[in-house]
Write a structure and sequence with these properties.
By secondary structure, the chain is of the alpha+beta class. It contains 6 helices and 24 strands. The chain is elongated and about 105 Å long.
Length: about 425
Amino acid sequence: MMSVNPHYRSHVASSSALCSTLLLALGVWLGTVPADARDFRVLQLPNGNAFGCANCHVSPAGGGPRNAFGQAVGAITGSSAVPFWSAALAALDSDGDGFSNGFELGDPEGDGTTIPGWTVTNPGNAASKPANASPTVTLTAPADGTTVTAPAVLEVSATATDTDGTIAQVEFFDQGTLIGTVAAAPYSLLVDWSVGTHTLTARATDNLGASATSTPVTLTVLAPEPVTLSAPSLTEGLLTVTWTGGGGPYLVEQKADLGQPWGGSSLVVTDRSVTLPVTGGAVFVRVADAAVIGPLEFTAGLSGANERPEPVNSPGTGTGSFTLQDNTLTFAITYSGLTATANAAHIHGPAGSDENAQPLIDLAPFNGGAFGTAGTFTGKVILTAAQKAALLGGRTYVNIHTGNFGAGEIRGQIVR
């Protein structure tokens, strides 16, 4: 049997133990290296050191799964060290908390320039977000203390801003009653103001639900001066009547016997003068101001037989109801039985029942759904003085067009 030097056996054992120790130490060292964390990327972020690796990783220490912001970064860089911060990345809201990545990191524009003293929050953690700042809103028109005389169709306008988001809507109120909502700038409404004093406010709401209300302004609408007739003149069978006051349009009536009631057909004019034929004997004239009027009710019955210049053979029918209050016309029109899908609809004028005229009001924006062989139009519009005069004079009509009858398939005169 070979004998082994005891000293040699001790040396071999010691070397083996040392090797095992070194391998164990090496194994421990290798096992603590994070697989995914990239410390250098923290330095590529504006204010990146505020949250370090937690900007991109679920674990605050880095490594492991990435959060939504880290995934957006990874989609840009892959495993490279390429710079990734940009205006496009800054504009995203990766964690869906209502604030852009740039806003959370203090660089809203994404140009690498941070705002001094900014409170930084984590763009990859929805629970870490800035406190939502309320928007600001100011009424810009009408000016406070404005006084006008009816008819008063004026815009109400506002400016609204939000430092940490966007404006979702601006609502306008008169005496606390909502009169209209605008979802995008410019924030303005055209309003037909009634006679009286109006206290106006605007309320802006941002994309996270915070709201603010403007300082109120006051608008006063005065009734027009009463109509005062001047001395009439008669020349070769023509009577010219002039007057002052009123806001117009004007309803002119005449009769030969003062003992008979008024209420015959009215001539509607927008000027403060009218010339009437006189055949003989006495004539009496009355002028009424329609500036502040209503409510007045009107109707329309639509059919192919009413089309001009030639009637149309169509089974289609329709009805319309209308209410005029001051300068605002509210309407509800229904139609059915057309031979083809409607492709346009208007209120036309000025024209009598046997005449044609150009469209005054497009009804398509008031369509209650897609055009069809049956449907509805409901809404309200503010009339100009000329449109109001045509309506009051019975010289407007509804016309619904189809592919089979481009000039109109059913039509109806709007009458009182």
